[in-house]
Amino acid sequence: MMNVANLINDNEYSVVLCLGDSITEANHCTEGYPGYVALLDEALRLRFRKNKYVVINSGIGGAHAVSSVEFISRQLNQFKPRLTTVMYGMNDSGKGESNLAAFEKAMNRIVESITAIGSEPVLMTQNPLDYGCSIESILRRRCFPDYMDAVRKCAAEKKVELVDVNAAWQREILEKDNNEHFKMMHDGIHPNHHGHRFIFERLKKQLLF
């Protein structure tokens, strides 16, 4: 299992690059609170001096993995990160089952690009949706669980780290009380600051301590 603290300790300076969509970007849906990337940055700041690392949030609202491969390649070449987190699938799933193969191919290419520059990739799944809500933006993402399975498959086949936020959320939140799920969400798709804290705690538990 990867340990981010060891990675930062063992190098003179480390860039941590965080890739993804609006959940990674932490737009207005965090309601003025820090998103999971900012929480990661703060945890590292408390443990290390800022002259040891920088966290770069390259999440872009609306981003699809399928259309982000070249952008990600440019980001990797520009920043030369030692650690790269990758969180996609929510937007890709809106195109349905027919897009799944393209998503799998894109995820494989992204991981290959990360490892090619000597960076450590960390794939992350995303928070579940609640299909009991008759909201169009949710209903057209019925294939979302298949996309999360594709992320898991990519991590297993490429033998890279996986932080399975989706499975933990299902187990610890949805399976206990659906009302708790709504407390973690800003809307039908985006987690609020409570949801982002949950995502960060999964990262922290698996990679930091």
List the helices and strands and how they pair.
Elements (H helix, E strand, L loop, with lengths): L3 H6 L4 E7 L1 H4 L10 H12 L5 E5 L11 H11 L3 E5 L12 H17 L3 E5 L11 H4 L4 H15 L2 E3 L1 H10 L3 H6 L9 H16 L1
Parallel strand pairs: 1-2, 1-3, 3-4, 4-5
Helix pairs in contact: 3-10, 4-5, 5-7
Shape field: globular
Which ranges are low-confidence, i.e. pLDDT below 50, for 5 or more consecutive residues? none
How widely separated are the two ends? 11 Å
Strand order of the largest sheet: 2-1-3-4-5
Largest sheet: 5 strands, parallel
Q: What's the mean pLDDT score? A: 94
Helix fraction, binned, reads 40-55%
Secondary structural class: alpha/beta
Structure report:
- This protein is α/β, with parallel strands linked by helices.
- The chain has ten helices and five strands.
- The protein has helices at 4-9, 22-25, 36-47, 69-79, 100-116, 136-139, 144-158, 165-174, 178-183, 193-208; strands at 14-20, 53-57, 83-87, 120-124, 161-163.
- The protein has a five-stranded parallel sheet, with helices on both faces.
- Helix 5 links the parallel strand 3 (83-87) and strand 4.
- The N and C termini lie close together (11 Å).
- The mean pLDDT is 94.
